[in-house]
Amino acid sequence: MSESEGAVISELGALGDAQGSAQAGSRSVRAEGERAPNARDAVRALRPSQIREVANAGFGVPDVLPFWFGESDQVTPQFIRDAASRALADGATFYTHNLGIAPLREALAGYVGKLHGATRPAEIAVTSAGVNALMLATQLIAGAGDRVVAVTPLWPNLVEIPKILGATVETVALTYGVNGWTLDLDRLLAALTPGTRMLMINSPNNPTGWVMTREQQQAVLDRCRQLGIWLVADEVYERLYYGDDAAVAPSFLDLATRDERVIAVNSFSKAWLMTGWRLGWIVAPERLMEDLGKLVEYNTSCAPSFVQMAGIAAVTDGEQFTQSLVADLRASRDYLVTALQQIPGIDVRAPAGSMYLFFRLPGANRSLELCKALVRESALGLAPGSAFGPEGEGFVRWCYACDTARLDAGVARLRAFMEAHPAE
Fold first, then answer.
1. Cβ contact 73:388 at 8 Å
2. Which of 19, 63, 371, 372 has fewest C-beta within 10 Å?
3. 35 pLDDT exceeds 90?
């Protein structure tokens, strides 16, 4: 074991000891009759999903066009479904290793290696979905009293997960202007103080489509190295990238060695249209895997074996499909941007990544109420900007992972709604 590895393992152990001591100390000085904070308080304080709130309002609405969730209108490719069917027929219905079956970890190591440099199966953990990977990574690193920084607007799960564990979250907002969404790098670097435990970054970003540049990633990585901050990179949309001829968005894995304080989270949901399968993975230092395996055991035990077999098919045989999917998404993005720009009052720009347009809409200063009205009156399902934090208020999100006929129908409904509700 290297000196740096020993220091990090000691740090993880000391964190648990410190949290236990702090909790014991707080009990010793608590006034008689005062109720201690508990996990239920943290859960009660969570923000409910406003995306789900709008979707629930739309269930049962005839002919609703649901652009609220982040998924395609296409089913998972046949070759992936066939792999799962064969695995089921062969009896792949038993528990597996906490960190995933060896063939999938090997396949993922090869896949990640082609995109981001040498990666070993021992640095890969298979998870039950990308969001499960985010929870596991946060449980591994952060706890009660820790300070976490996140770049927003952001899928709400990333901001709320640390709060479940008792951490505090400080946000650094992207800004919107003539060039779309951009990052104030100096502001982010200033937020990364010696007291920061973890930084969470999602790029390409949900909901904005913003993509962090290689230069920005290097500056942030250098700062995290300097202060010993853990960096959790949500790279679920890395293949849905339109910025240049590259097959993948810039990644922290391109810059960091595999034994640094960098944890990359990914999912099968987007690049292979496997949202309902609930399969993801983590790339992390090997020294963390034993503890990560324990956390998997106490969360889900393991991902389903037949689903993991489908994952092998996706990463080994799915490159042509993914490239075709990205080409279709680029075309849908451009088509929808052009169509929306023809509607007076809409402010929209083409993002460099993801599968969403996050655009200004008159009346969206109360975006949750607006999106409910769109469902109720126009059977049009969009996600409210406020679902992604206060920085998203004034915007709505539209998932464009569908055919142009569906997009046309949605644009027509939005135009009619806006004509019926002219901005004051």
1. no
2. 63
3. no
| Residue 165 to residue 160: CA distance in whole angstroms | 9
Structure tokens that stand for 73 in this block: 């209108």
Quick check: 305 and 101 in contact, CB under 8 A? yes
For 65, the token pair is: 């066009």
| CATH tag, 50-70+320-418 | 3.90.1150.10
Sign of CA dihedral 73, 78, 80, 84: positive
Region for residue 350 given its phi and psi (left: phi exceeds 0; alpha: psi -120 to 50; beta: otherwise): beta
Q: Give start and end residues of each alpha helix (H) in 302-345.
A: 305-317, 319-341
More confident residue, 182 or 13: 182
Residue type at position 310: A
pLDDT for residue 48: 86
Integer CA distances (angstroms), 16 to 5, 163, 224, in order = 17, 17, 21
Query: Checking DSSP bridges between strand 175-177 and strand 180-182, what pairing results, if any?
Result: antiparallel
Q: How many CB atoms lie within 10 A of CB 167?
A: 20
Write out pLDDT tens, residues 265-311: 999 999 999 999 999 999 999 999 999 999 999 999 999 999 999 99
Phi, psi of 132 (to 5 degrees): -65, -40
Token digits for 38?
């508990």
Two tokens, residue 144: 């009660």
For the segment(s) 94-317, the CATH number from 3.40.640.10, 1.10.10.10, 3.30.450.280, 3.90.226.10 is: 3.40.640.10
| pLDDT for 67 | 97
Domain ranges in the chain?
50-70+320-418, 94-317
Burial pattern 188-226, b for ≥16 Cβ within 10 A else e, equals bbebbeeebbbbbbbbbbbbbbbbbbeebbeebbebbee
